[in-house]
UniProtKB/TrEMBL annotation:
<protein>
    <recommendedName>
        <fullName>HTH cro/C1-type domain-containing protein</fullName>
    </recommendedName>
</protein>
<dbReference type="GO" id="GO:0003677">
    <property type="term" value="F:DNA binding"/>
</dbReference>
<feature type="domain" description="HTH cro/C1-type">
    <location>
        <begin position="1"/>
        <end position="30"/>
    </location>
</feature>
<dbReference type="InterPro" id="IPR010982">
    <property type="entry name" value="Lambda_DNA-bd_dom_sf"/>
</dbReference>
<dbReference type="InterPro" id="IPR001387">
    <property type="entry name" value="Cro/C1-type_HTH"/>
</dbReference>
<dbReference type="Pfam" id="PF01381">
    <property type="entry name" value="HTH_3"/>
</dbReference>
Length: 75
């Protein structure tokens, strides 16, 4: 999550504003050492969808070779 924000030059507040997920929740997710943080509701899906709409592509599996690619958002 932090890497995707960095690729987009987004702050935690930017991501929170774009998704409606609270800043404290985002910070908590980013502090988890596990590949995928435990989450309530559909927050992770909302965040992923937001990143993908902004041009981020998630590659690999959380357990093996996860990564990101960024593609410019087309207008």
């Amino acid at each position: 999550m932090r890497a995707a924000r960095a690729m987009l030059n987004w702050s935690v507040r930017d991501l929170a504003d774009a998704t409606g997920v609270g800043t404290a929740t985002i910070v908590r997710y980013e502090m988890v050492d596990a590949a995928v943080p435990k989450a309530r509701k559909n927050n992770l899906e909302i965040i992923r969808t937001c990143f993908e709409a902004a041009g981020i592509v998630f590659v690999g599996m959380p357990e093996d070779g996860p990564g990101l690619r960024a593609y410019p958002k087309r207008s």
